[in-house]
Specification:
Its EC number is 1.1.1.-. Keywords: Oxidoreductase. It holds the Pfam family Aldo_ket_red. The protein is an alpha/beta fold. It is about 35% helix and about 15% strand. The strands form two sheets. Strands 3-4-5-6-7-8-9-10 form an eight-stranded parallel beta barrel, surrounded by four helices. Helix 1 links the parallel strand 3 (about 15-20) and strand 4 (about 50). Helix 1 (about 30-45) runs parallel beside helix 12 (about 295-305) and helix 11 crosses helix 12 (about 295-305). The termini are far apart. About 45% of the residues are buried.
């Protein structure tokens, strides 16, 4: 599989990365044996980048990944890169403009959490440690990032990143320009295209690595879910697509399908293929992480990497599906 460098002086990452959220069990019931099988198939297929977080099943995703990786031959294990996250301590999600970094990401808290991440991942050094959320209220006094710099100097982490809060993804623009982050993880998909305005160009300008998440809009852009679909209560999407959201989403997905058919691409690209390829379309993007719960899903996602990029006229048409719908995570 093709690889890109994850930012300036970064390590190489496969253009499709493994998203580990579902391994924690919050996308419905998940068997650990299926998770391990998916991870093994992904590595066999050329995926060398895995993204996880402590919030994915209270550390379950991290430990499943770690237990699988320690079984690999050293020659293979050293080619696999794992990213995890430190969440803000107890309080509003995402942090509000009134939150103090001292209360959410104090030095003692960040250090303690990183030690737990190292323990869960069974490693002495984390390839990429991302703060799981942020507020631009801290941009002029970004002390948590300075703590991560010290941890990097101590050999605990290799790269520093931030996952953008959905409500204000552009909060990382100043941090990239100030050279405080090596990597940003953003939402960039057929519906959410705002990063193309400034965030992605600044990433390219500064040599910041870009990880794209939610390329499939939590599964909606696969086209698998009809307007009347209801998710089980133990699947976080039951709230993400609450009310009339699934109805409105399905109608827009149908419009994307119509565009693919008009360009005679519907036989070569599934809706999921098209969504992933769109998320890869900006030159600043290093890798697109996609959730994979079993080997079958891995095979489908890996196949997407081998499809040709969209012609300019197709890409231009697909850009019209930008949807200014507000932030659903916030309950709108």
């Amino acid at each position: 599989m093709k690889q890109n460098q994850l930012g300036r002086d970064g390590f190489p990452v496969s253009v499709i990365g493994f998203g580990g959220w579902a391994l924690g069990g919050q996308w419905g019931q998940q068997n650990d044996s299926d998770s391990v099988a998916a991870l093994e198939r992904a590595i066999e297929s050329g995926i060398n980048f895995i993204d996880t977080a402590p919030g994915y099943g209270d550390g379950r995703s991290e430990t499943v990944i770690a237990d699988m990786l320690v079984q690999l031959p050293p020659s293979i294990r050293q080619t696999i890169h794992v990213a995890t996250k430190t969440p803000p301590s107890s309080g509003p999600w995402p942090p509000t403009p009134y939150c103090r970094w001292q209360d959410r990401y104090s030095a003692a808290y960040v250090r303690s959490d990183v030690e737990q991440r190292l323990k869960n991942l069974k490693t002495d050094c984390i390839d990429l440690l991302q703060l799981h959320s942020w507020t631009r209220a801290w941009n002029d006094d970004p002390q948590p990032l300075l703590v991560l710099q010290k941890l990097r100097e101590e050999g605990k982490i290799r790269k520093i990143g931030i996952c953008t809060p959905e409500q204000d993804q552009n909060c990382v623009v100043q941090l990239m320009r100030d050279g405080l982050v090596d990597v940003v993880q953003v939402i960039f998909n057929l519906f959410e295209q705002e990063p193309a305005a400034q965030l992605l160009p600044v990433a390219a300008e500064t040599g910041t690595g870009v990880i794209v998440r939610v390329s499939l809009d939590e599964g909606a852009l696969t086209g698998k879910y009809a307007a009347d679909h209801e998710f089980p209560a133990d699947d976080f999407r039951s709230s993400y697509f609450a009310g009339d959201r699934m109805v409105r989403t399905a109608a827009r997905v149908d419009q994307i399908a119509a565009d693919l058919k008009e360009f005679q691409l519907d036989e070569d690209y599934t809706l999921a293929d098209a969504a992933i390829k769109f998320s890869q379309s900006h030159a600043a993007v290093s890798t697109v992480i996609v959730g994979m719960r079993n080997p079958e899903q891995v095979d489908k996602n890996v196949a997407t990497a081998g499809l040709p990029d969209f012609a300019p006229e197709v890409l231009q048409r697909l850009r019209r599906h930008q949807w200014l719908r507000g932030v659903w995570y916030g309950g709108k």
